[in-house]
């Protein structure tokens, strides 16, 4: 999976049936947006299933997610191998302990991420950036108003309080990134230092693609 693909974690896509009454979808989007606008920080366990369309193969990963406004997000993978992906402002770090290598982008453009992710850190507006509809089980289906090869559609499964319990994103090639969340806790007082990635002195640095 691409280095940054896990950042599209919090999104899910799957074309649902024809869009139901727009008001129902808008109400669900606002409920979800209100939940995260009142969230200062959160942490949760996750199970990610990434399916490669070309080969019909899936990879399952598990770990923990932490988010703090403004602009902090950290994914710590524990299975099948350890990996940390952290975003702090414009600094993106991906560290893999086993090969002892790190990828760092000091100029990561977080605005390039979908609103389905950026609203978690206090940015983006679902109603302004997506066509809204309802899908399986009453999930919120989002389709970009502007063509985006990274995202064909997004499905967000929304809990009773407006929290996202599962996301599914399908990209332009048909790859599916499905993430289920559990044990979600919010406004727990996460510290800024929890998003710092401590690197060993002998870590091998991988070149940022295209730079």
Q: Mind explaining what this structure looks like?
A:
This protein is mainly beta. The protein has a single domain, classed as outer membrane lipoprotein receptor (LolB), chain A. Helix content is 11%, strand content 41%. Strands 7-8-9-10-11-1-2-3-4-5-6-12 form a 12-stranded mixed sheet. A hairpin with a 3-residue loop joins strand 3 and strand 4. It starts with 21 loop residues before the first helix and ends in a 5-residue tail after the last strand.
Proportion of residues in helical segments: 10-25%
Which CATH-level-2 architecture? Clam
Q: Characterize the biggest β-sheet.
A: 12 strands, mixed
Query: Can you tell me the CATH class?
Result: Mainly Beta
Encode the helix/strand succession as letters: HEEEEEEHHEEEEEE
Overall pLDDT, averaged? 84
Strand content: 35-45%
Order of the strands making up the biggest sheet: 7-8-9-10-11-1-2-3-4-5-6-12
Strand elements, count = 12
Assign the CATH superfamily.
Lipoprotein localisation LolA/LolB/LppX
Number of distinct helices: 3
Q: What name is given to the CATH topology?
A: outer membrane lipoprotein receptor (LolB), chain A
State Rg: 17 Å
Topology:
Layout: H1 22-37, E1 41-52, E2 57-68, E3 72-79, E4 83-88, E5 91-96, E6 101-105, H2 115-118, H3 126-129, E7 130-134, E8 140-144, E9 153-158, E10 164-170, E11 176-186, E12 204-206
Parallel strand pairs: 6-12
Antiparallel strand pairs: 1-2, 1-11, 2-3, 3-4, 4-5, 5-6, 7-8, 8-9, 9-10, 10-11
Q: Which structural traits does this protein have?
A:
211 residues, mainly beta, outer membrane lipoprotein receptor (LolB), chain A, twelve-stranded mixed beta sheet
């Amino acid at each position: 999976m691409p280095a940054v693909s896990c950042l599209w974690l919090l999104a899910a896509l799957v074309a649902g049936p024809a869009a139901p009454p727009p008001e129902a979808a808008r109400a669900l989007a606002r409920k979800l947006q209100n939940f995260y606008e009142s969230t200062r920080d959160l942490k949760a366990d996750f199970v990610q299933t990434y399916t490669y369309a070309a080969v019909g193969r899936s990879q399952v990963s598990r770990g923990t997610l932490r988010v703090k406004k403004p602009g902090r997000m950290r994914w710590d993978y524990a299975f099948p191998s350890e990996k940390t992906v952290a975003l702090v402002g414009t600094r993106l770090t991906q560290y893999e302990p086993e090969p002892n290598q790190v990828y760092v982008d000091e100029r990561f453009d977080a605005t390039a991420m979908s609103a389905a992710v950026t609203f978690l850190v206090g940015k983006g507006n679902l109603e302004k950036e997506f066509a809204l509809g309802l899908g399986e089980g009453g999930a919120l289906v989002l389709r970009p108003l502007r063509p985006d090869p990274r995202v064909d559609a997004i499905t967000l499964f929304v809990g009773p309080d407006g929290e996202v319990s599962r996301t599914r994103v399908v990209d332009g090639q048909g790859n599916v990134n499905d993430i289920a969340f559990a044990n979600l806790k919010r406004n727990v007082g996460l510290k800024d230092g929890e998003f710092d990635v401590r690197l060993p002195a002998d870590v091998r640095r991988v070149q940022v693609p295209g730079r």
